[in-house]
Amino acid sequence: MERVRIGIIGDYDAEHADHRATNAALEEAGRGLGARVDYEWVATDSVAPDDAVRLAGFDGLWMAPGGPYRSLDGALWGIRFARERGVPFVGT
Amino acid sequence: MLGLLDAAHVEYGADPETALITPVACAVPDDDTGPRIKGKQRVRLTPGSLAGRVYGSTEIAAEFHCRNELNRRFQSLFERSDLRIVGVGDEGEARVVELAGEGFFIGTLFLPQMAVLEGEPIPLIDAFVGAALMASRART
C-alpha cells in the first residue's frame, strides 16, 4: 500500500473534537485513496522559524485549528515553508 | 505576500480595529466569552477556483467554530495578491483563501474535518491528501 506522510502543525489536545476529527478525516481520506496516511502532530513550539529540517519529511502540511498557538512564529513558519516549497497545504 | 509588515492578530494582543485578524462581525453571541461563529453557514465559492473545483459546487454548507476573521478593511489587499479570497459568507466576508498557481494551498475559516463525525464526505481533505500523495510519488 502506498504511504503518504502528513504533518499536522498544531498543539494537539485530545479534548478538542476538531483535533480528533482532523485525525479521523485523514484516515478516511486514506481509505478513499487506497493509501496509508502516516500523520504526525508537530507542536508549534517545536518548530523553530527557519528550521528547514523539521518539516522536510512531509508530503503535505495541515495547519490545525486551535489558536492561540503556543508559538505563533512556529505556526507562521510552517505555513511559509509550505508556500515557498510548494508543499500541498490546507489550513482549517 | 500582501505587503504588510505589521500584520497582527487579536488573539495575541493586537488592537481589534487595526489588526489583520479581528473578532468576527456577524456572530451568535452564545456565551459571555465573546462573539463567535458556530454551526453551519453558507459559503459561496468562486467558480473555477481550486476550492470550487474541489467541492464541485459554488455553494457549500460549512461547519464553523471560530471567534476571529479577516478584518474587512484589509480585504481589498487580496485583489492584488497571489493569495486570493475564493470563498465568502453571506455578507461577502472572507471564508476561504487559496494561492494562485498550480499548487495546492487552501485555507478555510471553517472546519471541514468536522463532517467526518457525521459520516459525510470531505472533498477538501480528500483532495489535499490526494495532492500529498502525488507529491509523494514525485519525490520517489
Architecture overview:
The complex is a heterodimer of chains A (92) and B (140). With 92 residues, chain A is of the alpha/beta class. Helix content of chain A is 34%, strand content 25%. Chain A is globular. Chain B has one domain: Class I glutamine amidotransferase (GATase) domain (Rossmann fold, 3-Layer(aba) Sandwich). Chain B contains 2 helices and 7 strands. In chain B, strand 5 and strand 6 (94-99) form a beta hairpin. The radius of gyration of chain B is 16 Å and the shape is globular. Classes of the chains: A alpha/beta (92), B alpha+beta (140). At the A-B interface, strand 1, helix 1, strand 3, helix 2 and strand 4 of A face strand 7 and helix 2 of B. Strand 4 (89-91) of chain A pairs parallel with strand 7 of chain B.
Point out poorly predicted stretches of chain B.
none
The ordered H/E elements of chain B are EEHEEEEEH
- Work out the radius of gyration of chain B: 16 Å
CATH architecture of chain A: 3-Layer(aba) Sandwich
Instruction: State the name of the first-level CATH class of chain A.
Output: Alpha Beta
Q: Which superfamily, in CATH terms, is the homologous superfamily of chain A?
A: Class I glutamine amidotransferase (GATase) domain
Spatial arrangement of strands, main beta sheet of chain A = 2-1-3-4
Overall mean pLDDT of chain A stands at: 95
Helix amount of chain A? 25-40%
Quote the CATH topology of chain A: Rossmann fold
CATH-level-2 architecture of chain B:
3-Layer(aba) Sandwich
| First-residue to last-residue Cα separation of chain A | 28 Å
Note the quaternary state here.
heterodimer
